[in-house]
User: Fold Xylose isomerase-like TIM barrel domain-containing protein from Streptomyces nodosus.
Amino acid sequence: MTGRTTNPGAALPDGILIGNAPVSYGVYGEGAGGPGSSPGALLASMAEAGYQGSELGPPGFFGTPEQTAALFTEHRLAAVGAYIPVHYALDDDVVEHDLARMEQTCRELAACAEAAGTPADLAPLAILADEGSETLLHHPARPWDDRSLALTEAGWERLARLSERAVAMARSYGLRPSFHPHISTFVESPWEVERLLELTEVGLTLDIAHLQLAGGDPVACLRAWRERINHVHVKDVRMAVLAEAKASGRTDFDEWWADVCVPFGAGDVDIDAFLSELLRGGYRGWLLVEQDRAPTPAEEYPEVAAEQAANHAWLAAKVAAHS
Assistant:
């Protein structure tokens, strides 16, 4: 099983799947609690909205590997993959902690794939991402010509070495490795992504909003990196929120970041242009909806679930229109 093959609303072209992630419902980070609803109810909301799969969220959120696989099977959803943060620039003991958590995630994803009989070309994705530093949290979207906070050459070599170690772990569990560039990290802007691609063989998760926030052009970068892209995150953002945060020197990243992310069509990302180029080039795989938000109180959960259902309908209609 690889997820649902039918969706309410617009029909999707063969090979295109739409998923979501717990972060869209306010679940993220170590020690994350429920989104105002149980993990099972979260998956039920996604399935009812027409999503075909979900990323996992933090390790253990859905339970043990066996419990995770059972929940995804119950709701007829595919385990798309999982976001795996690594503090590439911090001490070795911190990195080892990150990699131990990664192994827990790999076990959960592998259990889901085995239970579903997922084919190798749709194997869940181990989505690596740099966790940056406290300093970078306060300096999002750095100018490309200011490399004072960038990794040193030794730092890049360490990132590449650790990434290849993580890639090997992912592959040992039958997973597809990928890397997610992210704002306020050491792999943020297009030149940093280019450096990553030069130094490693890891696939690329193209998050069109993070890329635009960092000053990149999603369509141009898609054309340049097409052969390395094995996963796509689709989100919409308001550039004015980032500009205000930078201008005022706000340091409460988690607070203003939730204000950046908005429902599809309410932000500044030209998703139409991106989808047109993506599908014209023959992309097949997941389109993962993300609308990062702060943790959701129980009384707000129905509204959040309805918003994610609307995001699915919006994206499915756009994909159908560009197919």
Remarks:
- The CA atoms of residues 161 and 258 lie 32 Å apart.
- DSSP finds twelve helices and ten strands in the chain.
- The longest strand covers residues 78-86.
- Residues 1-8 have pLDDT under 50 and may be disordered.
